[in-house]
Amino acid sequence: MGEVEPGPAGPLEPPEPPEAPASRRPGGIRVLKRNMKRNGSRNCLNRRSRFGSRERDWLREDVKRGCVYLYGADSTTATTTTTTSSSSSSCSSSSDLHLVLCTVETPASEICAGEGRESLYLQLHGDLVRRLEPTERPLQIVYDYLSRLGFDDLVRIQEEATNPDLGCMIRFYGEKPCHMDHLDRILLSGIYNVRKGKTQLHKWAERLVVLCGTCLIVSSVKDCQTGKMHILPLVGGKIEEVKRRQYSLAFSSAGAQAQTYHVSFETLAEYQRWQRQASKVVSQRISTVDLSCYSLEEVPEHLFYSQDITYLNLRHNFMQLERPGGLDTLYKFSQLKGLNLSHNKLGLFPILLCEISTLTELNLSCNGFRDLPSQIGNLLNLQTLCLDGNFLTTLPEELGNLQQLSSLGISFNNFSQIPEVYEKLTMLDKVVMAGNCLEVLNLGVLNRMNHIKHVDLRMNHLKTMAIENLEGNKHITHVDLRDNRLTDLDLSSLCSLEQLHCERNQLRELTLSGFSLRTLYASSNRLTAVNVYPVPSLLTSLDLSRNLLECVPDWACEAKKIEVLDVSYNLLTEVPIRILSSLSLRKLMLGHNHVQNLPTLVEHIPLEVLDLQHNALTRLPDTLFSKALNLRYLNASANSLESLPSACTGEESLSMLQLLYLTNNLLTDQCIPVLVGHPHLRILHLANNQLQTFPASKLNKLEQLEELNLSGNKLKTIPTTIANCKRLHTLVAHSNNISIFPEILQLPQIQFVDLSCNDLTEILIPEALPATLQDLDLTGNTNLVLEHKTLDIFRLCVSALAMDNFAEGVGAVYGMFDGDRNEELPRLLQCTMADVLLEEVQQSTNDTVFMANTFLVSHRKLGMAGQKLGSSALLCYIRPDTADPASSFSLTVANVGTCQAVLCRGGKPVPLSKVFSLEQDPEEAQRVKDQKAIITEDNKVNGVTCCTRMLGCTYLYPWILPKPHITSTPLTIQDELLILGNKALWEHLSYTEAVSAVRHVQDPLAAAKKLCTLAQSYGCPDNVGAMVVYLNIGEEGCTCEMNGLTLLGPVGFASTTTMKDAPKPATPSSSSGIASEFSSEMSTSEVSSEVGSTASDEHNAGGLDAALLPRPERRCSLHPTPTSGLFQRQPSCATFSSNQSDNGLDSDDDQPVEGVITNGSKVEVEVDIHCCRGADLQNSPPLIESSPTPCSEEHARGSCFGIRRQNSVNSGIVLPMSKDRMELQKSPSTSCLYGKKLSNGSIVPLEDSLNLIEVATEVPKRKTGYFAAPTQMEPEDQFVVPRDLEEEVKEQMKQHQDSRLEPEPHEEDRTEPPEEFDTAL
């Protein structure tokens, strides 16, 4: 914390806190000792347990002041990664919490003196525990930690440091905590009755028994240190239960002269502990001791009695040098061959390790070494030496003495050239130097190393090559140059080269020798020419995708053994006949080119996989299916196909085609009969074509069909013969004109059914649903009436957030969270991140500040769940633009991970996010390298994730950070829509294609689903998530109330909302559609179907707690409060719990609400009323259709209201409301007059009082804008009328109303009444 000015270290004299007076300690430190409650599920402090106001006042005086929470050594809660809910809920007196007030200059020794303790211990992310040095400053450690996370403001850092929830990320202990299970694995000991031998000649005697390492140690109780000790090696032995004596075990060693000891335990728990640990030892074939990840500073003293240990694993500890069991004593293991000391932060090389001459394997990775001692040359038997992740720049010459060394790892160090010592190490056959600082590829140095065959130089800084002579190299066979900066590469001198990786460089030209070439991977470059001479007769796999090639190289056409060819994402216009008719080619990838036609096949070919998507094809070769009889996969999506070639040359088809993707073409009904010629089809995608019918007789013959996608066509029905497809598990037919529900619920394997955005009117669901059914999506069927329970829906690992009425109606928030393979974190972020944003917006007006803090605080709030799990996150916030008066609204986007947002402006995509991955962000990759993370060959940080910034995964700190990328964009009238998508979506759809695909789709739900369908048809195998938000920015903007409120469906995989706009919107009205899909090839555990859009009830006016309470109207300077007229805008949302009854009511006597469709789980009722004049109420039309387009000018002064019901099966239904149910209720006591309070706090309207929405008789003159509902009070604070008094109260309220109502004047005689605002309660 360079910004913190160092102050003199001295006694601190903070004021005495009134809640818990602090006692004086040595050094002037104030310590507040409290028994503070813990949250059993999070292992963090309860928010109610905080220090008082006087301490806060003391902290505010100086940012260098703060507090440290000092935990006790509670063995059940210390290690959060292994605690259980039962153990974490119980805290002993030793886990009392001390709140220590200190400064950033206060050392640990001063705190220890005040506490009467020897040392302080630091634990990060519930993982390892490290002893602090006396000079280390605990508060400064916390400040530095928060600063590296992304907090910039010192005042905010001070505030975060005092938050007790930070304990899930960083905490201090007064004593070293240790889990009981860890202790058992390190050492078991106790005094028990022991009998030696298998016979009963010996008597039982009380002895001290120790199980440590690989041996059982039995000694006298009195003379346990000086007396005779019996050591029993257990590796290869056996452990048996003694049946004649309760809780007794017989330990036996291996060999012909095996000895046996009988040990009698007192309790069953002890018996099981010893049996469990001893069984692991006897089952080993090699004497191995694993003490990794135990926060050890030294090995147990009894371990040295296990002299048969050959492999010792001490990875991820804090081993010290000069201790009784420290590193300087490991030479006592006389038979030790393998030693792992990686991730111990040693700093200096332990020289005494060089005296263990028996070592053959030594791992010293990630210890911060900057040099190696010359004594390392004494390890003459060493065969494997791993030094990855250090700061080495050179290797000592003495290392050349290790003539048996066959593996040397020096990746992710700071070498600028290949060490010369490699020339002496003749047993080495690999140069593994990934992640170093090499800038020149010197082939001359490699030519002098005749024993080197493999060269790994990925992720260096290679820019140029250096060739000392033209002499060829006949030894190197494998070269890996991925993720460098090479522009030209000539490796023609490597005559024996078999495999080359050069992806993600900047290559324009590549020249190789083809004598021995077998595999070539050169994707993601700028190649215009690839020269290989002679023709590679051994080449089997060639990847030239994502380059600038205009034709397939001639030498590739002549390769006789090529099996895989990938030239996708290039500029090809034609495909050579020699390629397509190759007798060895089995996989051909030609997608994303400009190919207009394919040559006609004459001979039979062995092709099995053919990808032709995103070309300009109008037809396929007539002989494709008759000549490519082995073809199993064909993807011709995103072309201009109008017909398909026949698969039958005679009476019987020989086609073996199983996967056929034809999405986004011009196919008509005439192509359906051709499909019958492929009887083995398992997956068929015909989405976004021009199909009007699907003949029943044709579908009847596709009996092997497992997945069928017919979405985006003009189908009116699904053939009844679909019931013959017994293997069908997925049917996707959204965005059609289907009016009859197909007979699919009788299929035995059906899992996923998507019939959303159709014209369904009714559906009869059988009482016995298929056990395999996971998702039935019927959203967007506006005329559907469903009177049956909905399904319990499985969840995806992608969650979405949509709040169109955020911060009391002045903004909107949209988000997407992708947990890859976990769903817990996306759900947590979905439910909490909007609340955090609302809090941060109230603290700062700077969009960069409040967005960054939102992500960082959400990162902290993940608690224990965020220690091992991580999630990508994307958040979009629309609000009035206070910085640019010319613009009405601004869009602020923040993201970490791989979720992205794209804005459509004038039909063109505008990317708003940054992809934080190692492959796409060189700056982030360099940062991770500088932090000495190990990046595996699949480009993952420590083999876990490819993302460099995420929420969660705190155990990967400091490599993975939560600080987001933030952009702020003023919205204009040219901005049409906003697309949010996860990694799977953008990997298969370009920004331009995504925008053009949904730009003219009217329904946002249909638009989102279309994006998911396209991604799947283009080959996406993962969970796909997409959200489409339609924007409507008016020319006259203001910061008044939001134009509308969007309520999301309570459940369902896809949720859609549609806005009813005023003629000239004053705020950006938005309609959002959320969709997500799953792949049919995923396992059942990965299949789910819900991208929830639930938001916090506390701040979402459309949530469960949306109350009908008055509040002042917000007006901007352009639109001051009108001097006359009344306004009213009251949206309502009621959520009915399914734990009461099927219809959402809490009594069997109550009837379902008329006109409200219940799904047995939740029901949402949204009433959206425009500003209107009371005189126009009678002349209002009985039904106003919900539409994303603005209302007409004629209706601007009239009533535009209705009820739109949204649940998992319907949305967008608008019903007329009778006049007598819209009378204005003006008494505050009527807020819950017609509601019935449930046990869960929700309010259920009765049948005779459906509408809680009251309409005012006057409205403001301004035609634009209608207003959001205020936040609802807690249910227990509301006035609930008992049922037996309802009629009496109603009559009194009606009389009170009638006494206040005045006769309504005619339109021509209307005069402006005095200013009066009457909001429905």
Automatic annotation (TrEMBL):
<keyword id="KW-0479">Metal-binding</keyword>
<dbReference type="Pfam" id="PF00560">
    <property type="entry name" value="LRR_1"/>
</dbReference>
<keyword id="KW-0597">Phosphoprotein</keyword>
<dbReference type="GO" id="GO:0004722">
    <property type="term" value="F:protein serine/threonine phosphatase activity"/>
</dbReference>
<feature type="compositionally biased region" description="Low complexity">
    <location>
        <begin position="1069"/>
        <end position="1095"/>
    </location>
</feature>
<feature type="compositionally biased region" description="Pro residues">
    <location>
        <begin position="8"/>
        <end position="20"/>
    </location>
</feature>
<dbReference type="Pfam" id="PF23010">
    <property type="entry name" value="RA_3"/>
</dbReference>
<dbReference type="InterPro" id="IPR003591">
    <property type="entry name" value="Leu-rich_rpt_typical-subtyp"/>
</dbReference>
<keyword id="KW-0539">Nucleus</keyword>
<dbReference type="InterPro" id="IPR001611">
    <property type="entry name" value="Leu-rich_rpt"/>
</dbReference>
<feature type="domain" description="PPM-type phosphatase">
    <location>
        <begin position="798"/>
        <end position="1031"/>
    </location>
</feature>
<dbReference type="Pfam" id="PF00481">
    <property type="entry name" value="PP2C"/>
</dbReference>
<dbReference type="Pfam" id="PF13516">
    <property type="entry name" value="LRR_6"/>
</dbReference>
<dbReference type="GO" id="GO:0005634">
    <property type="term" value="C:nucleus"/>
</dbReference>
<feature type="compositionally biased region" description="Polar residues">
    <location>
        <begin position="1120"/>
        <end position="1144"/>
    </location>
</feature>
<dbReference type="InterPro" id="IPR050216">
    <property type="entry name" value="LRR_domain-containing"/>
</dbReference>
<comment type="function">
    <text>Protein phosphatase involved in regulation of Akt and PKC signaling. Mediates dephosphorylation in the C-terminal domain hydrophobic motif of members of the AGC Ser/Thr protein kinase family; specifically acts on 'Ser-473' of AKT1, 'Ser-660' of PRKCB isoform beta-II and 'Ser-657' of PRKCA. Akt regulates the balance between cell survival and apoptosis through a cascade that primarily alters the function of transcription factors that regulate pro- and antiapoptotic genes. Dephosphorylation of 'Ser-473' of Akt triggers apoptosis and decreases cell proliferation.</text>
</comment>
<dbReference type="GO" id="GO:0005737">
    <property type="term" value="C:cytoplasm"/>
</dbReference>
<keyword id="KW-0464">Manganese</keyword>
<keyword id="KW-0904">Protein phosphatase</keyword>
<keyword id="KW-0433">Leucine-rich repeat</keyword>
<dbReference type="GO" id="GO:0016020">
    <property type="term" value="C:membrane"/>
</dbReference>
<protein>
    <recommendedName>
        <fullName>PH domain leucine-rich repeat-containing protein phosphatase 2</fullName>
        <ecNumber>3.1.3.16</ecNumber>
    </recommendedName>
</protein>
<feature type="region of interest" description="Disordered">
    <location>
        <begin position="1282"/>
        <end position="1321"/>
    </location>
</feature>
<keyword id="KW-0472">Membrane</keyword>
<feature type="compositionally biased region" description="Basic and acidic residues">
    <location>
        <begin position="1290"/>
        <end position="1313"/>
    </location>
</feature>
<feature type="region of interest" description="Disordered">
    <location>
        <begin position="1"/>
        <end position="27"/>
    </location>
</feature>
<feature type="region of interest" description="Disordered">
    <location>
        <begin position="1059"/>
        <end position="1151"/>
    </location>
</feature>
<dbReference type="InterPro" id="IPR001932">
    <property type="entry name" value="PPM-type_phosphatase-like_dom"/>
</dbReference>
<keyword id="KW-0963">Cytoplasm</keyword>
<dbReference type="InterPro" id="IPR032675">
    <property type="entry name" value="LRR_dom_sf"/>
</dbReference>
<dbReference type="InterPro" id="IPR036457">
    <property type="entry name" value="PPM-type-like_dom_sf"/>
</dbReference>
<keyword id="KW-0378">Hydrolase</keyword>
<keyword id="KW-0677">Repeat</keyword>
<dbReference type="Pfam" id="PF13855">
    <property type="entry name" value="LRR_8"/>
</dbReference>
<dbReference type="GO" id="GO:0046872">
    <property type="term" value="F:metal ion binding"/>
</dbReference>
<dbReference type="InterPro" id="IPR055071">
    <property type="entry name" value="RA_PHLPP-like"/>
</dbReference>
